[in-house]
Write the structure tokens for this entry.
Amino acid sequence: MPSIHFISGLPRSGSTLLAALLRQNPRVHAGMSGPLAGLFGALLGEMSARNEFSVFIDDAKRERILHGLFDNFYADSPAEVIFDTNRIWCTWMPALERLFPGAKVIACVRDMPWVLDSIERIIQRNVFTPSSIFDYQPGGTVYTRANGVAAQNGMVGAPYDALKQACYGAQRERLLLVQYETLTTDPAKTMDTIYRFLDEPAFDHDFDHVNYDVTEFDERAGTPGLHTVGSTVKAEPRETVLPPDLFNRFVHDAFWRDPSRIPYGLQIV
């Protein structure tokens, strides 16, 4: 079994870009968010007491079954290092520690107003294509959309709460927060930090020729451009499309930028 690590964190915060860069390394497999986290949760639920036959399943069996999920899913991968991506992995930090004692989690983060801005920008760009983000429902306003994704069970709110749980939890020493702003302005520093965090040999990445295309997936989700990665890693300053009051509502949510709110042992680049 190859080494396995995880990419998690907030949406619209660079996880696809990070995966595209990691894929340049021939030792590494990485990609966009996949189905394993959902299968993981479903298996846990089906092996719980709600299943009348759960009396035949103890924790040792649960652990072997869950480990087997990863073994079988990646059985045909020749990579020596595998990164599985999903925003919900931060929720499962204690379980990941039990299953994969050497695994680390890279959590991509970004200032919250710009996460919401990025989502809204995609919605406004695809005005004739209702998105899966909002159950393919047309209409609404920037306020209803922002409130929806920022809710505790929303596309942004749920990963944000999971991220905070991981950052303040007992497993935070195996967590590295990668800020979108650092990744796009100093990708060499970011990748070097990641390899050192993983105890993996450094790799000379090409930041001017990045390639990762999942156009078909995005179009089927009614959200063209959701996982589009530019060919060159660079920061692109822009004005927000959010109204000022909505933008300002989320400006203090980036707890990783406040030294007084960063727990001891949490690593950030």
Remarks:
- The chain has a mean pLDDT of 87.
